Inverse folding.
C-alpha cells in the first residue's frame, strides 16, 4: 500500500501502522538506526523513500546517538523530523533526549517498548521509555495499532504547537502490538496532511542565513534555570493543547482521545490503572467481573508526560481501592513509576483510597486474564477491609 | 551569554542579567550569531603569555596556532599583543614561538 485516498479499514501490524503514519506525515528528515522490535518501522519507511512515496531526506546513521543528534539538528533548521527506536537504542540516545527537549525541538519518535538490557531480552516491558520519563519528552502510550497510528499523527501537532514545542515519544508494546496483525482505520493521505499542516514549529532556523541564530550556547548559572522553567511551561501548556488536538483529530477521524480512558468506571468501587496493550486484556477481565456483579473498572493512561495528575485524582478519588499495574520497576524498592506518579497525585486528597502496586510482564512475561483477575480480587478485598496486605506485588514471577 | 561590563561583552543584545524566564529566548537560542566573542574565557587562565615586541621577529606562528584567536594583530597583520579577555593561557603560542623571550609564560598573580 503506497497511498490511501479514503478512510479505510486495513490489517496492519503496529510497526506497519507506525510506518504508514510516518509516510502520510511525510517528514522532511528521518534519521534512524535499526533495533528490534522497532527495525521494521524504519525499514518500511526506507522503502517509501526508495519508492518516491515521500520526499523525506533519509539519513542512515551509525548509531541511535547519531540518529537523535541528526534529528535535533534538522529540527533546528526548521525541518519536520522523526526517528524511531527501542530499548537500548533509546538508552544510547539518552544524552541527546535531554538536549532535544531543552532545545525545544518538536521531534516525533515512535518507541516500540522493549526490556532494557540486561540481562539481554528483546521482548516487551516499559523499562526503556519509563527510564526516559524525566527527559522532558511528552509521552503517549498506545493500547493497539490503531492508537499507535492515531497518536503518531496527533503527536506532530502537539509537539509543534508554539506554546508547547517539545519532542514526543509515541510508545507501543514491542511484539505484542508491533508484530501482531490488527484491524485499524487509516485516514486518507490528504486528510493527514491537512491535519498536520505545514508545521516545522521553529521560530528560528539554522539554515536562515539572513537571520543567523545560535543554537545550544553555554547556559550557565544565570540562565539555565530560566530555560528549565520555560520547559516546564511547555509541559503545562501541553495540558491544554493535547485535548485541543484530540478534538480536531476526532473531527477528522471519528476517534476520541483523552489523557486517559475510563472503562466502566462510572460506579466502580475498585479501579485498576494500566497503560499499553495490557489494557485490552484488562477490559475483558472487567467485562467478565462486571458480569459476575463486581463493581470494577479500568483507567488506561494514554498521556504519562505531562502527567494528568488532577484529572487522575478526580477519577480515582471516590474509589474504595485502587491498584496500579507497572510494566517496569524503578529499583527504588518502593514500587514502579506509574505507581509513584499516581499515588503521589492522590496525596493532596484527604480521603484517598488505598493504592497498591503490581509489577508485571517484565522482559515480555505473558500477562494473563487470570492474573489480572487476581489483581481485581485482591483489590476488592482491600476495598472491603480498608487494609493492604502488601503494597507492592510481583505478578507472574516464580516465587 | 555572559553579560558583563568589559569591552568585549558589549553587544547590546544580550538579555538583561535579571531577565525572567518569560523574557529570555526559548530553548537557549540566541537569535543572532557571532556571540562567542562576548564570552570571557580569559578568567580560566593560570599562566599568561607575555609578549615582547623587541624580541618578536613577526613570524606570526603564535597567531596561526592560537586556538582562541587571542593573538592580536594590527591592520598590517603584525602581532601587537594578547587579548587577555579570551586567552585561556594554554601556552601554545609560547611553545611555537622560535624566539626566547618573545612569548614567555608567567604565572597569573592573585587578584589584589
Amino acid at each position: 500500500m503506497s497511498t490511501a485516498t479514503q478512510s479505510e479499514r486495513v490489517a496492519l501490524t503496529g510497526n506497519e501502522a507506525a510506518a504508514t503514519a510516518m509516510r502520510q506525515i511525510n517528514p522532511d528528515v528521518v534519521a534512524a538506526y535499526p533495533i528490534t522490535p522497532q527495525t521494521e518501522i524504519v525499514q518500511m519507511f526506507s522503502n517509501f523513500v526508495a519508492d518516491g512515496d515521500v520526499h523525506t531526506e533519509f539519513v542512515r546513521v551509525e548509531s541511535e546517538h547519531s540518529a537523535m543528534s541528526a534529528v535535533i539538528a534538522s529540527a533546528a533548521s526548521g525541518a519536520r523530523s522523526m526517528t524511531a527506536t527501542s530499548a537500548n537504542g533509546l538508552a544510547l540516545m539518552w544524552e541527546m533526549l535531554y538536549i532535544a527537549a531543552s532545545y525545544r525541538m518538536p521531534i516525533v519518535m515512535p518507541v516500540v517498548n522493549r526490556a532494557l538490557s540486561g540481562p539481554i531480552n528483546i521482548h516487551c516491558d516499559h523499562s526503556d521509555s519509563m527510564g526516559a520519563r524525566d527527559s522532558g519528552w511528552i509521552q503517549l502510550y498506545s493500547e493497539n495499532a490503531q492508537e499507535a497510528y492515531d497518536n503518531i499523527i496527533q503527536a506532530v501537532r502537539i509537539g509543534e504547537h508554539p506554546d508547547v514545542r517539545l519532542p514526543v515519544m509515541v510508545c507501543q508494546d514491542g511484539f505484542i502490538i508491533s508484530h501482531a496483525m490488527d484491524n485499524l482505520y487509516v485516514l486518507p493521505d490528504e486528510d493527514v496532511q491537512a491535519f498536520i499542516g505545514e508545521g516545522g514549529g521553529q521560530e528560528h532556523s539554522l539554515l536562515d542565513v539572513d537571520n543567523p541564530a545560535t543554537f545550544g550556547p553555554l547556559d550557565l548559572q544565570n540562565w539555565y534555570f530560566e530555560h528549565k522553567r520555560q520547559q516546564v511551561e511547555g509541559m503545562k501548556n501541553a495540558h491544554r493543547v493535547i485535548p485541543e488536538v484530540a478534538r480536531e483529530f476526532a473531527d477528522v477521524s471519528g476517534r476520541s482521545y483523552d489523557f486517559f480512558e475510563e472503562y466502566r468506571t462510572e460506579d466502580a468501587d475498585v479501579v485498576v490503572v494500566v497503560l499499553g496493550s495490557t489494557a485490552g486484556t484488562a477490559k475483558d477481565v472487567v467485562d467478565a467481573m462486571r458480569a459476575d456483579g463486581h463493581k470494577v473498572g479500568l483507567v488506561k493512561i494514554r498521556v504519562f508526560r505531562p502527567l494528568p495528575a488532577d484529572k487522575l485524582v478526580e477519577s480515582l478519588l471516590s474509589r474504595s481501592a485502587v491498584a496500579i499495574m507497572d510494566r517496569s520497576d524503578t529499583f527504588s524498592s518502593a514500587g514502579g513509576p506509574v505507581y509513584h506518579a499516581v499515588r503521589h497525585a492522590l496525596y493532596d486528597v484527604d480521603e484517598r483510597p488505598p493504592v497498591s502496586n503490581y509489577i508485571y510482564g517484565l522482559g515480555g512475561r505473558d500477562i494473563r486474564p487470570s492474573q489480572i483477575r487476581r489483581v481485581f480480587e485482591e483489590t476488592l478485598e482491600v476495598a472491603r477491609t480498608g487494609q493492604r496486605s502488601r503494597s507492592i506485588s510481583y505478578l507472574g514471577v516464580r516465587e | 551569554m555572559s553579560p558583563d561590563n568589559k569591552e568585549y561583552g558589549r553587544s547590546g543584545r544580550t538579555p538583561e542579567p535579571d531577565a525572567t524566564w518569560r523574557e529570555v529566548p526559548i530553548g537557549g537560542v540566541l537569535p543572532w550569531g557571532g556571540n562567542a566573542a562576548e564570552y570571557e574565557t580569559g578568567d580560566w587562565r593560570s599562566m599568561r603569555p607575555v609578549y615582547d615586541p623587541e624580541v618578536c621577529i613577526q613570524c606570526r606562528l603564535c597567531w596561526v596556532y592560537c586556538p582562541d584567536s587571542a593573538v592580536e594583530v594590527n591592520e598590517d597583520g603584525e602581532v601587537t599583543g594578547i587579548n587577555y579577555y579570551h586567552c585561556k593561557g594554554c601556552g601554545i603560542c609560547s611553545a611555537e614561538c622560535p624566539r626566547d623571550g618573545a612569548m614567555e609564560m608567567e604565572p597569573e598573580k592573585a587578584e589584589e
